[in-house]
């Protein structure tokens, strides 16, 4: 327990944003638990999100619908998730962000998309979001503007106590390190960038303008809060209906983008899980919970590949 706490607290300190000079204008810093609080959270941890057992070839693996932001009290796995973690041979994430080569690819301009030329006005709007996140404008300058926008979108949730340093992938990575559980990525970084960033600069520019408008109009935080609440309650129905209530899918292009970002990646995720399982390894695959929704959900993809899917949390009615 104490060793895990030291690793976890050190990680939080490395992700601190802002400082005393900007505390009033910046979102609250991540809460750093005392030893007593951490012990209580670990002892009383509840399961959140969506957890499924997938079985084939006489072996079990697991799929966990995760959230990329979180609260301090979600820092420890609940009983069912912990039991699954203790039974598997490998933790599979969308990307292994502990891998230096993966981080190197993500930090560079994407090879598949040309440089996006921003007007001075558009650059000013993007820099304003860096300021709102208490980051210097140059902090993400080497990233594609859409990747920077994605970071600013996630960081906006900190105002509501939802911090990326408590995202489930981060916490599972730390848990795996502490327990010597190997970590793999189900996608490669270049492939994920191709899904996230349109190769057509006109479409990329349109996506950037729409995303900035959502942030500027205050439409992002309510979406993040509702999605986090649905995830915490294991409310798959609300997540299934995300495209209808998020106020972010407004036209045919938005719908095509959402399908590309969500459904379009599921075959690759399913293939990665299947490959490891076929090698005789039991896998816990943690992917964004929205991948478990939609007409081509990851669970449907796995079922089509011969896996028997059983929901463990929340228990079906």
Automatic annotation (TrEMBL):
Signal sequence interval, chain numbering: 1-23
The entry's keywords: Signal
InterPro entries linked: TraB/PrgY/GumN_fam, YbaP-like
Keyword Ion transport: no
Residues forming coiled coils: none
Pfam family, one: TraB_PrgY_gumN
Protein known as: TraB/GumN family protein
